[in-house]
Design brief:
126 residues; mainly beta; four-stranded antiparallel beta sheet; seven-stranded mixed beta sheet
Length: 126
């Protein structure tokens, strides 16, 4: 059974950093696009960053470019989201999602991913 488990969320001060992890089981990362999405209260879900073996470069939302970095460790079947220079507007529940292999743009912007983790809360506040 395909499963995604996020970890690494928490409370951090503005300007701080967090690293989110998404541990995948039941499938191999190579055959899926993986994305990080977030949803803040009262706001629509946003595709933050996506990675796919179909593309040489990840996708980043404009709001996080230069601050967030997505990466994956195939040996550990885990995808990471390194978040630096965090801002209060980054506060949200962050979800990891997986979808059968597609482009990063499709994954983050166009498709409804088939599989989701339970989410992890990120709060940026002083």
């Amino acid at each position: 059974q395909l499963q995604l488990v996020e970890s690494g969320g928490g409370l951090v001060q503005p300007g701080g950093s967090l690293r989110l992890s998404c541990a995948a089981s039941g499938f191999t990362l190579d055959y899926y696009a993986i994305g990080w999405f977030r949803q803040a209260p009262g706001k629509e879900r946003e595709g933050v960053s996506c990675i796919s073996s179909l593309d040489g470069s990840p996708y980043y939302a404009d709001s996080v470019k230069g601050r967030f970095t997505i990466s994956r460790d195939n040996a550990k079947n885990t995808v990471y989201l390194q978040m630096n220079a965090l801002k209060p507007e980054d506060t949200a529940v962050y979800y990891c999602a997986a979808h059968p292999l597609t482009t990063v743009l499709a994954m983050c912007v166009r498709v409804m991913p088939e599989h989701w983790g339970q989410g992890t809360q990120v709060t940026v506040s002083s």
